[in-house]
Amino acid sequence: MTVAASCPLCAEEGGLPVWCGRQLRVIRAQEEGFPAFYRVVWNAHVAEFSDLDAAARRHCMDAVAEVERVLRARLAPDKINLAALGNMVPHLHWHVIARFAWDSHFPAAVWAPAQRPCDAQRMAELAAQLPAIDAQLAQALDAWQSRESIH
């Protein structure tokens, strides 16, 4: 696996580990105000999606879709945001963020200025569900990985 010494996603997990496979891992980001914020992180250090071959790109996006599927099923968010910016951390990773009409920034991006104060009660209710969601994500990704290795 390629590692860059100065890269934070090579040096550490990048958040709370949820699942790890041979090529990528899923973490829950610790982003204040956005508890259902996950990242699909490519394990080897590559900066751009096009650095991957076609099979690896498909594998990566299938993992992103699996995370999105579980979040939609469990949380019924108003929207799922997907992003792969990499401007601050040039290591391939996808943001998969469950968004709600009541969140402090909706409908703007999580990096935009807040639109309203945080709804502490709804945030707490959402946060209480996360351990079970993490477990379901790990189970779904294990099953996905098994299906992927068959093909």
Task: Write structural notes for this entry.
The protein has 151 residues and is α+β, with helices and mostly antiparallel strands. It has one domain: HIT-like (HIT family, subunit A), CATH 3.30.428.10. The protein is built from three helices and five strands. Strand 1 and strand 2 (24-28) form a beta hairpin. Helix 2 crosses helix 3 (120-150). The longest helix is centred in the C-terminal third of the chain and has 31 residues, at 120-150. The protein is globular, with a radius of gyration of 15 Å.
Q: Share of helix among residues?
A: 25-40%
Q: What does the average pLDDT come to?
A: 92
List segments where confidence is low: pLDDT < 50 over at least 5 consecutive residues: none
Work out the count of structural domains: 1
The strand line-up of the biggest sheet is 1-2-3-5-4
Estimate the global geometry from the Cα principal axes.
globular
- From the 3D structure, determine the CATH topology: HIT family, subunit A
